[in-house]
Specification:
Layout: H1 6-21, E1 25-26, H2 29-32, E2 49-52, H3 56-69, E3 73-76, E4 93-96, E5 103-107, E6 112-115, H4 121-128, E7 133-134, H5 147-153, H6 160-163, E8 170-176, E9 182-186, H7 197-201, E10 210-217, E11 219-220, E12 224-232, H8 235-247, E13 254-259, H9 260-269, E14 279-287, H10 289-305, E15 311-314, H11 317-328, H12 330-333, E16 340-343, H13 353-367, E17 371-376, E18 381-388, H14 395-412, H15 431-434, H16 437-450
Parallel strand pairs: 2-4, 3-4
Antiparallel strand pairs: 1-2, 5-6, 6-10, 7-11, 8-9, 8-10, 12-14, 12-15, 13-14, 13-17, 16-18, 17-18
Helix pairs in contact: 1-3, 8-13, 13-14
Length: 480
C-alpha cells in the first residue's frame, strides 16, 4: 500500500514521531529543501519527510515502519553522490544518517576500525593516525563524504590504483534489511568462508538496505611518499606515459591527469601553482624510502622518454598537499569556467585512453561544448566535465546528449559506464549498453528476493518493472 492523501501521510509521520523521534521527523518545506537532490541537481524530488536517526535501533524501527506501511525510503549521508543515487522518490522518506558519526573503535594490532555510517571519510584516517595507520580510499569529496555513502557506491579515489576500491577495505558490516531485520555480514578477517555477502552489499546503492556499522581495513602510513608533477604538450602523450609506467612493472599509488581546461579551473580556484601545458600528470609513489627513491628515478626516466616538459618531484608534505588540493578541487573549480556542468564517470582500458580522449574532444567540438578532462589515469577512470549554461535554451539537453555519447564510447572501447560514482538515476537507462536483458532480469530477481516490495531506494540502478508502483520511479526535474 502506498500513501496517496495528506491524511494518510500525516498518520504515517505521526507514527514515526511515536517511535521516540519527536522533532527529528522533518516535514516543513524549509526543512526538506536540502534533501530533494544530491550533488547532481538535475534530479529533484520533495520527500514526504526526513527522519534524522541517531542509532542502529532507530534505523531498524523506521525501516520496519516503512515496511509495514509500504512507504519507500532512501538513506542519505552528506549527499555528495553525483548520479542521483540519494534522490528521494515521491511519497517516500529520507533516512538521514549524519548523526551516526562515531568511530566506535580502532584496533591497531588487527589494523581495523569499526565506524558508524555517518563518519566522514577523512575522520577515519584522523582517528587511526596516532597508531601509524590510515584508511586508504580517498574520493575527491573525502573531507565531507561519509563511509555509508562510500560503501553504497563502492567509491575509489585517486589512490585506488594501488589500494583498490571501498570493497577492498570493507571487512564486515551490520545492515538493516528492507523489512527491518538486522544482519551481520562478513567480519574482522580478510579471509571469509562462504559467499561474500559484505562484498555484494558494497556497491548496491541502497537496494539491499542500510549499513549501520562497518568494519574497515586500515593500512600502515608509508615511510616515504614522493609526488611527481609532469607537463605534456598533449593528453595523448600523457596517456602514453601512464602506459609506459605500468608496462615497466611499476605500481604507483596514484596516477592522475588533468587537461588545460581543468588546470585553468584549479588555478582560478585554489591556486596550486601548476605549470601550464596541455596536460598535467601527477604520479605518486609510497613505501620504504630506498624503494621509493629507486622507483622515482625509474618513473622520471620514463616520463622524460615519453616527452614530458617540466618535471617536478617533492617529498614536502605542504607541497604535496597543494598538488592534491588542486586535483581534488577540480570538480567544484570548473564553476569558475561555467555556471553548470555534468561530470561523467566512464571507464576505458588504459591502452585506449588516448583514443577515448581524442573522441571526447571531437564529440564536444561537434556540439560546441567545452569539456574539461580530469581522470584516474592508472585505471582508466574518466571524469569528463561537460560545461554548459542552463540559462540557454536547449543547453541542458545538449549536455546530456554528449554525456550519453561519452558513456556509449566507453563501452564501445571495452570499458564501463561507471567507475565509482554509481548508476543511480542518471545512468540507469544506460545499463543495457553493458548488460543483456537476461543479466538485468537476474539483477532484478536478486533485488526482489531481498526486497519484494522494492521499498529500499527504488528507481535507482535498475529500471522498475512495469508492475512496480509509479512511486518507485524518481521524478527528474531539471533545475539548472
Amino acid at each position: 500500500m502506498r500513501y496517496r492523501c495528506n491524511m494518510e501521510s500525516e498518520r504515517f509521520t505521526t507514527s514515526l514521531r511515536a517511535l521516540g523521534l519527536g522533532d527529528r521527523v522533518l516535514t516543513s518545506d524549509a526543512q526538506l529543501a536540502a534533501f530533494g537532490s544530491d550533488a547532481l541537481t538535475a534530479f529533484n524530488q520533495r520527500p514526504l519527510a526526513v527522519v534524522v536517526v541517531e542509532s542502529a535501533a532507530e534505523v531498524a524501527a523506521v525501516v520496519r515502519r516503512c515496511h509495514e506501511a509500504g512507504v519507500p525510503f532512501v538513506a542519505r549521508g552528506s549527499g555528495t553522490s553525483l548520479s542521483g543515487g540519494s534522490v528521494p522518490v515521491e511519497g517516500g522518506i529520507v533516512i538521514a544518517l549524519n548523526r551516526m558519526n562515531r568511530v566506535l573503535s580502532v584496533d591497531p594490532d588487527a589494523r581495523i576500525a569499526v565506524v558508524e555510517p555517518g563518519v566522514i571519510n577523512l575522520a577515519v584516517s584522523a582517528a587511526a593516525a596516532a597508531h601509524g595507520l590510515a584508511y586508504a580510499p580517498d574520493p575527491s569529496s573525502q573531507s565531507v563524504c561519509t563511509i555509508g555513502g562510500n560503501l553504497a557506491f563502492n567509491s575509489g579515489g585517486a589512490h585506488c590504483l594501488k589500494h583498490g576500491m571501498t570493497a577492498n577495505h570493507i571487512l564486515g558490516l551490520r545492515a538493516v534489511l528492507p523489512d527491518g531485520e538486522v544482519v551481520d555480514l562478513g567480519g574482522e578477517s580478510t579471509e571469509h568462508v562462504g559467499p561474500d555477502w559484505a562484498g555484494m552489499f558494497c556497491g548496491c546503492e541502497g537496494l539491499f538496505g542500510i549499513a549501520v556499522e562497518a568494519t574497515l581495513r586500515l593500512v600502515p602510513v608509508p615511510e616515504s611518499v614522493r609526488t611527481a608533477l609532469a607537463v605534456f604538450d598533449s593528453l595523448e602523450r600523457a596517456g602514453e606515459a601512464v602506459a609506459a609506467i605500468v608496462g615497466a612493472g611499476l605500481v604507483p599509488v596514484a596516477m592522475e591527469i588533468m587537461d588545460a581546461l581543468a588546470i585553468e579551473a584549479a588555478e582560478a580556484s585554489v591556486k596550486p601553482a601548476y605549470p601550464s601545458g596541455a596536460a598535467l600528470l601527477i604520479v605518486e609513489l609510497e613505501g620504504d624510502e630506498a624503494v621509493v627513491e629507486h622507483e622515482l628515478a625509474a618513473v622520471e626516466a620514463l616520463l622524460r622518454e615519453a616527452g614530458c616538459g617540466e618535471l617536478r618531484a617533492t617529498a614536502d608534505p605542504g607541497e604535496r598537499a597543494l598538488i592534491w588540493k588542486g586535483r581534488k578541487s577540480a570538480f567544484s573549480a570548473v564553476g569558475w569556467l561555467a555556471p553548470d556542468y555534468i561530470v561523467q564517470d566512464g571507464v576505458v582500458p588504459r591502452t585506449r585512453l588516448g583514443e577515448a580522449l581524442r573522441e571526447i574532444d571531437r564529440l564536444g567540438a561537434e556540439r560546441g561544448i567545452r569539456v574539461a578532462n580530469v581522470f584516474h589515469a592508472g585505471d582508466g577512470n574518466l571524469h569528463p566535465l561537460i560545461l554548459y549554461d542552463g540559462r540557454e535554451e536547449g543547453a541542458v539537453e545538449r549536455a546530456e546528449e554528449l554525456a550519453a555519447d561519452i558513456l556509449a564510447l566507453c563501452v564501445d572501447l571495452g570499458g564501463s559506464i561507471t567507475g565509482e560514482h554509481g548508476v543511480g538515476v542518471e545512468k540507469r537507462d544506460h545499463m543495457k549498453l553493458m548488460f543483456s536483458a537476461e543479466d538485468l532480469g537476474l539483477m532484478e530477481d536478486l533485488r526482489a528476493a531481498v526486497d519484494p516490495g522494492r521499498l529500499a531506494n527504488p528507481g535507482k540502478m535498475l529500471i522498475p518493472p512495469p508492475s512496480a508502483s509509479p512511486a518507485a520511479v524518481p521524478n527528474p526535474a531539471a533545475t539548472a
